[in-house]
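Dear H.,

Thanks for agreeing to be a second pair of eyes. The structure we're designing against is below in token form, covering all 292 positions.
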């Protein structure tokens, strides 16, 4: 069993980006600038966005954190988006999800200029990705592809079962892994909450991508000996014995599944850190594409 170490791999990618930024500076070019919009005070979102901003600083990007009140109106947020679209000092920006319930997420994502949409959530980017054109690929699936590629996990001709059909993870990773190219050429099945007899399906999989959001859902009896396991789940489970008051759990019962697997991502330290590294990568690409 080999651990797909997202912490280590994300650090490698950050070093690659940092070197690229140094070269840009040496050529007298402006460094990439990312903005992150955070609405409200959700604890997990604060952690993730904080980590994004710190990573920008580490690689030498400019970064701006825009914090807005939980009760901001949809209209006021849309105006903020328009201002970010018009801000020529910005290469890209993200609006951290989830948004408060009174705001229509889809409306907000549609308002983001696709050229600055470094999350790759706008339909223009999603469509371009699906058609194998240059596009911003959503950071989490992009990070999974990097782990598969860099650890040389066999995917060509293999059966991959993706559990979850979200627009941010399940759907895009199913598209990417079935495409030609590195970490691609897989035969992909997308399973979801209406799937009948999920365990019979996951037991056939050479690769399982769990993106469900239910802690420790995938157990050892549900996987084939030698399967590769990608765990996208990241749930904060209350735990009074822990100083933070919670523990982070993935969608995979790690200890038992690890014993049967060829490759596995840990949680934390797997897909999460890769998401951050690939957001930086997209911001670098935005800088390069938008100046061409
Ligand atoms: N717009 N919203 C937008 N873009 C995104 O790409 C995200 N996502 C998801 C939630 N909302 C978003 C993230 O950034 C999930 N996500 C994310 C990012 C980083 C980490 C986890 C999820 C991460 O760094 N996880 C660490 C543990 C962090 C902790 O202590 O909680 C890990 O090792 O998995």
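And this is the sequence the design step returned. I haven't edited it by hand at all.
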């Amino acid at each position: 069993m080999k651990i797909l170490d997202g912490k280590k791999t994300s650090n490698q990618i950050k070093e690659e980006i940092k070197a690229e930024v140094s070269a840009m500076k040496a050529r007298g070019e402006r460094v990439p600038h990312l903005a992150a919009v955070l609405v409200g005070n959700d604890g997990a979102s604060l952690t993730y966005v904080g980590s994004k901003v710190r990573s920008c600083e580490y690689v030498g990007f400019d970064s701006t954190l825009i914090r807005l009140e939980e009760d901001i109106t949809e209209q006021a947020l849309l105006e903020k988006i328009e201002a970010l679209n018009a801000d020529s000092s910005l290469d890209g920006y993200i609006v951290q999800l989830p948004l408060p319930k009174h705001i229509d997420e889809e409306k907000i994502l549609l308002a983001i200029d696709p050229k600055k949409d470094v999350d790759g959530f706008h339909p223009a980017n999603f469509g371009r990705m699906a058609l194998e054109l240059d596009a911003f690929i959503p950071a989490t699936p992009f990070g999974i592809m990097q782990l598969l590629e860099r650890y040389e996990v066999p995917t060509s001709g293999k059966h991959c079962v993706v559990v979850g059909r979200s627009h941010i993870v399940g759907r895009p990773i199913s598209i990417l892994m079935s495409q030609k190219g590195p970490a691609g050429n897989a035969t992909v099945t997308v399973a979801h909450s209406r799937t009948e007899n999920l365990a019979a399906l996951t037991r056939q999989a050479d690769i399982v991508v769990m993106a469900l959001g239910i802690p420790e859902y995938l157990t050892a009896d549900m996987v084939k000996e030698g399967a590769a396991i990608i765990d996208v789940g990241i749930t904060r489970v209350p735990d009074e014995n822990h100083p933070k008051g919670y523990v982070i759990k993935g969608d995979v019962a790690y200890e038992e599944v690890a014993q049967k697997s060829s490759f596995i991502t840990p949680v934390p330290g797997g897909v999460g850190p890769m998401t951050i590294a690939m957001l930086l990568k997209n911001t670098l690409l935005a800088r390069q594409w938008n100046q061409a």
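Two observations from my side: Residues 44, 47-48, 51, 94-97, 119, 139-140, 234, 248, 267-269, 272-273, 275-276 surround L34 (CB under 6 Å). DSSP finds ten helices and eleven strands in the chain.

Warmly,
E.
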